[in-house]
Amino acid sequence: MSGKFVRAIFPGSFDPITNGHLDVVKRGMKLFDELIIAVGRSPVKNQLFSPEERIEMIAELIGDMPSVSVEGFEGLTVEYAAAKQASVILRGLRSLTDVQYEFQLAMTNRAVTGIETVFVMTSEQYGFTSSTLIREVASLGGDLANLIPDNVHKRLEGRFSRLREQVQRK
Ligand code: ADP
After folding, report:
1. How far is the CA of 126 from the centre of ligand 1 (A)?
2. Sequence-ordered list of residues with C-beta below 8 angstroms from that of 131, at least 6 positions apart, any chain
3. What's the pLDDT tens digit per position in 25-72?
4. Strands (E) located in the chain
5. Domain ranges, ordered by start, for the chain
6. How large is the C-alpha radius of gyration of the chain?
7. Class (C level, CATH) for 7-127
């Protein structure tokens, strides 16, 4: 790479962050001088963790990654990127199904502001991991230890065991 300083943002919902996301972060860390994990605050349906909780979990995981930080953001990703003077949007790809949606998103973002999107492919073992699936399996009491970091695992267990207790009491 040239000597130019490159700051990238890695935007997403991260509800919650998975080992797949972390894999993308670690790959991105090698490519960019600075990487900001940007947690979208826009109202999402079926939200499990609040943006603050999601940010907290991510902060616990990046303590030993000096070039990586985490922040919440509202509104358009491209506007957030411009405000941060980031020249790259980092996104992860799991499968061909991801490509179609990500392609549209990247083309739109580039048409609007000229910002480039860089894609990295996840490790094979995380190719099927999604936050949606994690939320579903965790709600049914399944074991997800290999797919999510320990701190996320603990919080998920706490959240769902409380919910199950409430349901049983009714
Ligand atoms: P969004 O709601 O914006 O898709 P996500 O938190 O679901 O936010 O995902 C953020 C980014 O991480 C997206 O680029 C998505 O494709 C990528 N991603 C999600 N899960 C994985 C995974 N297991 N491996 C690689 N990339 C992933």
Report:
1. 11
2. 13, 14, 15, 16, 17, 18
3. 999 999 999 999 999 987 766 789 999 999 999 999 999 999 999 999
4. 7-12, 34-40, 68-73, 88-93, 116-121
5. 7-127
6. 17
7. alpha beta
Ligand 1 cavity residues, CB under 6 Å = 12-14, 18, 20-21, 23-24, 91-92, 94, 98, 122, 126, 129-131
Residue 7's nearest CA partner among 67, 65, 58 is 67
Q: What is the mean pLDDT of residues 142-168?
A: 86
Ligand 1 closest atom vs CA 90: 14
> pLDDT digit string (tens) for 1-20?
557 999 999 999 999 999 99
pTM here is 0.92
102-135 per-residue burial string, b: 16 or more CB within 10 A, e: under 16? beeebeebeeeeebebbebebeeebeebebeebb
d(CA 73, CA 64): 23
* DSSP state letters, 120-156: EEPPGGGTT--HHHHHHHHHTT---TTTS-HHHHHHH
